[in-house]
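Support request from a user on the community tier.

User writes: "When I paste my structure tokens into the form, the page sometimes reloads and wipes my input. The last time it worked, I copied everything first. Here is what I submitted, just in case something in the input itself triggers the reload:"
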């Protein structure tokens, strides 16, 4: 999930399969770029800096992301 705070993106996520990974938390300066462009530029770095985790830890992060997404019903958000 990417959240805008003071013209920065705060990014946090996880992957369960094929191998559990935790991504972030990370802060990306948006500057004059669009959110999509900032994510496209930094996504490889975020994935590279992710760390292997136990499945239950990755699932905990995914549950947090899901709870945040549900709390912003009506707001625009993307799941990538």
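"...and here is what came back when it finally went through:"
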């Amino acid at each position: 999930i990417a959240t805008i705070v003071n013209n920065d993106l705060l990014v946090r996520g996880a992957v369960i399969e094929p191998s559990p990974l935790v991504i972030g938390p990370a802060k990306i300066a948006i500057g004059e770029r669009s959110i999509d462009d900032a994510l496209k530029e930094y996504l490889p770095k975020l994935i590279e800096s992710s760390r292997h985790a136990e499945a239950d830890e990755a699932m905990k992060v995914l549950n947090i992301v899901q709870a945040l997404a549900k709390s912003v019903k009506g707001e625009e958000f993307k799941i990538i």
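Agent notes: The reload is a front-end session timeout and is unrelated to the input. The first helix runs from residue 35 to 48. Residues 43 and 49 are 10 Å apart (CA to CA). Escalated to web team.
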